[in-house]
């Protein structure tokens, strides 16, 4: 009888413990590489592009994901319940994979113009504007694409008007069902929640999340930008926030043009479960031996 109870406890621990993970992002770092500014139109309220974290939870359907933002509003009456952010999520699940971005995220950075350049330009670069410093020094404002440091196997694109996932090269986009949820007690704001049939999260998975302002009519649905913000034009590139534990690291990555995946261990309960199971099995075996293997 004691052996049966012990076996039930071991199996019960495995049944009711689930893998979970919360990767938090600093509040108020929705300024991209340092120069990003929201469009000036009134509906772009502070925080609607401020990423607060990515949460994973093992469920019966696979893995549940929640992308948390400081606030989510829906003044444009988008069918999925939120208007402003365009979210790209990339999952690095194994070695290799794709390294391209589904949507053309770019960064802006400055470089001093050559002192001998009468035209005040930076030859060979994509110049989008000029900045003049207090001392009269001229800097070129340059645009460059963002790259990922490692490949991905699954990507998800989320907006209030469509949500889909993409697998390995050659696979067709698949629709993703999303819901908008409110955080309770953790100051994470509001979240966009969906599930993917991936199985339990693994400790070696890597995560990229990029948040940009949405434009239904822009290329790739990314909002146009300029050196100076306008009513419906952002400033400083088209990436407001990326997943990272430090705002300083975010700025450094975006200025360098390459994003590193975030990797974190699973919750303690999930790390402890294999040891509990192994210990329980050992105790069960010892119980059988001590009792002469009586049933």
Descriptive overview:
The chain is of the alpha+beta class. It has three domains: 1-19 and 267-290; 25-100 and 146-264, Immunoglobulin-like, CATH 2.60.40; 106-142, no CATH class. It contains three helices and 18 strands. The chain has helices at 2-16, 247-256, 268-290, and strands at 20-24, 51-59, 62-69, 85-92, 106-112, 127-132, 138-145, 147-148, 154-158, 163-166, 174-175, 179-182, 190-196, 206-213, 225-226, 234-235, 241-242, 258-259. It has a six-stranded antiparallel sheet with strand order 11-10-9-4-14-17, with no helix packed on it. Helix 1 (2-16) packs antiparallel against helix 3. The protein is globular. 32% of the residues are buried. Residues 1-17 and 268-286 have low confidence and may be disordered.
List the helices and strands and how they pair.
Elements: H1 2-16, E1 20-24, E2 51-59, E3 62-69, E4 85-92, E5 106-112, E6 127-132, E7 138-145, E8 147-148, E9 154-158, E10 163-166, E11 174-175, E12 179-182, E13 190-196, E14 206-213, E15 225-226, E16 234-235, E17 241-242, H2 247-256, E18 258-259, H3 268-290
Parallel strand pairs: 8-18, 15-16
Antiparallel strand pairs: 1-2, 2-3, 3-13, 4-9, 4-14, 5-7, 6-7, 9-10, 10-11, 12-13, 14-17
Helix pairs in contact: 1-3
